[in-house]
Amino acid sequence: MREIKQRVRDPLLLLGALHLLTIICGMPPPLPVQCNHIGCTLYNSYGAWGDRKECHVPNVTYPATEEELRLAVAYANRNKLKVRVVSQFSHTIPKLACPTSISENAFLISSAKYNSGIQVDTENLAVTVDAGVGLRELIDKVEEAGLSLVAAPYWEGVSVAGLISTGAHGSSWWGKGGAVHDHVIGLTLVVPATPSQGYAKVITLERQDTLLNAAKLSLGLLGVISKVKLSLERGFKRSITYNFTSDAQFEDEFMEHAKKHEFADITWYPSKRRAVYRYDDRVPLNVSGNGVYDFIGFQPTSMVISKSIRATEKIMENTRDVKGKCILAATSVGSKELVGNGLKNGGLVFTGYPVVGRQGKIQSSGSCLYSPSIDITTTCAWDPRIDGLFFYETTAMFPAPKFGDFIRDVKRLRDVINGENMCGVDIYNGFLIRFIKASGAYLGQSEDSVVVDFNYYRAKEATTPRLNQHVWEEVEQMAFFKHGAKPHWAKNRNLAFLGVQRKYPNFNKFIAAKKQLDPQNMFWSEWSDEIVFGQVGAKVEGCALEGQCICSQDRHCSPGKGYFCQQGLVYKEARVCRYSPPLSSSHTTTSTTTA
């Protein structure tokens, strides 16, 4: 592995740079459920659905105890309603939290007020927590007891039940691994019951119960999670160093990196030809350091800056300004290197590596969630109320041996198209590469895996094609169809889920558990069919632009705006919407293809 170059910065210079990016006070995110005299609407926190793809329900209930939760499920069962649960956050990208498109049959349960119970068992190194408790509250309570939760996602804007239900994860091949559901040692579930049982009952699942492998990563399809029991470890600190270096061999080095460092990850900026290795290891509590990780993308961001970046990128899209996007990408990557990507020595400012801090202050971040409402100058950068950032998020989970070949293919594509055409992804977070172990969960990974996240520009209007649309469509199809990656359950465009059930050897066991616990499909909807069974809708005009289909005819793209359905440049089986300027070679409708 390459040698690390020590970087120590002037604190005053850093304070000035940070001030340009964030302000301390601001506006907290909007509540996901909004009600008026005619009913309630559930919104995605990114604005990915809501105004344009609304989820209406007649009302929503807010249970505060397990018995109130049981009564809510009983009411829905007795009245033959479709039920889903939403937390106080609603960051899932697929529409899994929506009960049904038929609003009169819908019943929504919010766990926002079922969030007070956190029982730490210091003797047995475990914690039992109410389903609606937020991740930050859980982490802080556990740390107060001198213990640590080992695995957690980088973003803390999730509830405990929500994060295990969707397979949320950090990064580690060590111990039990980086996926939080693999640290679940028990849970209670509210499921439908017979009239003589009161229409709903609470069941408890422990380690020895095979149903736990279905319930601990269930997408909310088996019932309503009431309480979650997680394993803990004695409190510890972590030491983190980022190494910004060349990407020349990282596709051959990732396994060594993951095996050598307990919480390793890699960020790849393909247009910049840079890889950022995160050297992240556990250290004893007596090691000096009080650092925190306040990831720069999750800090309260000036609304003016968020709106300006969005407006600038929109102009670049409309004028096909590739070089402008590359300048913006270089600025983004450079600022992250300058401020250690949000690491802060002593909790105040980044002054150099390594940054050492308590596990609870290092593992997750999301300070934009807690912006006080007295000052409305900052918020989360993607807050849909301010016309700020708006993006797709593709997340692919590869069996570890296949990951290197995927990266080689992406590099080949970069060479074919000129690396500048990949600048769009580097404006955001590049390719974030993390590691999770093989899981016993039926909908979890059956082998040690590498997870890749990448974000890229999304138009507000679904029928608007994007600059370099074909690039990210080809990368997406390479991942899921050529290299067999699984989609993250809480992210991705619909096409990523095509054929997903064939990628899980225990999929039928999950369906059997579903039939046992919810035989009437009370928790199932048409949105579940789209994700769990990879069902796609009719191929209509423009359906490929937002990933509702893979194009097979020009009309699935936007021929009127110059985007035609063509084969991939490296992965020839891919079918992508590529821009062709006027007076170019004639376009013919491609033949239907399946992925």
Task: Describe the secondary-structure layout.
Elements: H1 11-21, E1 33-36, E2 39-42, E3 55-57, E4 60-61, H2 66-78, E5 82-86, E6 106-110, E7 118-121, E8 126-130, H3 135-144, E9 147-148, H4 160-165, E10 184-192, E11 200-206, H5 212-215, E12 224-231, E13 233-234, E14 237-246, H6 250-260, E15 265-269, E16 274-283, E17 292-293, E18 301-302, H7 303-319, H8 322-338, E19 343-344, E20 355-358, H9 359-362, E21 378-379, E22 391-399, H10 400-417, H11 423-426, E23 431-436, E24 449-457, H12 469-482, E25 486-487, H13 507-517, H14 526-532, E26 563-567, E27 575-579
Parallel strand pairs: 4-6, 5-6
Antiparallel strand pairs: 1-2, 2-3, 7-8, 8-12, 9-13, 10-11, 10-12, 14-16, 14-20, 15-16, 15-23, 17-19, 18-21, 22-24, 22-25, 23-24, 26-27
Describe the structure.
With 595 residues, this protein is α+β, with helices and mostly antiparallel strands. The protein has a domain at 33-110: Uridine Diphospho-n-acetylenolpyruvylglucosamine Reductase, domain 2 (2-Layer Sandwich), CATH 3.30.43.10. Helices cover 25% and strands 22% of the residues. The chain is built from 14 helices and 27 strands. Strands 20-14-16-15-23-24-22-25 form an 8-stranded antiparallel β-sheet. Strand 1 (33-36) and strand 2 form a beta hairpin. The longest helix is centred in the last third of the chain and has 18 residues, at 400-417.
